[in-house]
Amino acid sequence: MREVVDKKMNKLMNESGFNIARNLKILRKERNVTQKEVARHLNIDVTTLSHYETGIRMPDIDTLIALAKYYDTDINRIISNNFD
């Protein structure tokens, strides 16, 4: 079931043109932390985080939730085309 949800979410994000990669990078730079620090906190590989920030991969819903909590924001800000 989770794989189906993740695939649908990835398809929606890609089709809708959400710029998750750009938004994640902006959030990280606003917080003035390295990819290594974020990856360590989320218990993911730094390469995985790098792939999220470059758009090579899209985070699953659990990772989006964890990223939103880490950056003290909501998922809408991460997936929004209109990042403010």
TrEMBL record:
Keywords: DNA-binding. Residues 24-78 form the HTH cro/C1-type domain. It comes from the Bacteria. CDD domains: HTH_XRE (cd00093). GO terms for molecular function: DNA binding. PANTHER family: HTH-TYPE TRANSCRIPTIONAL REGULATOR XRE, TRACRIPTIONAL REGULATORY PROTEIN-RELATED-RELATED. This is XRE family transcriptional regulator. It comes from Companilactobacillus suantsaicola. The lineage of its organism: Bacteria, Bacillati, Bacillota, Bacilli, Lactobacillales.
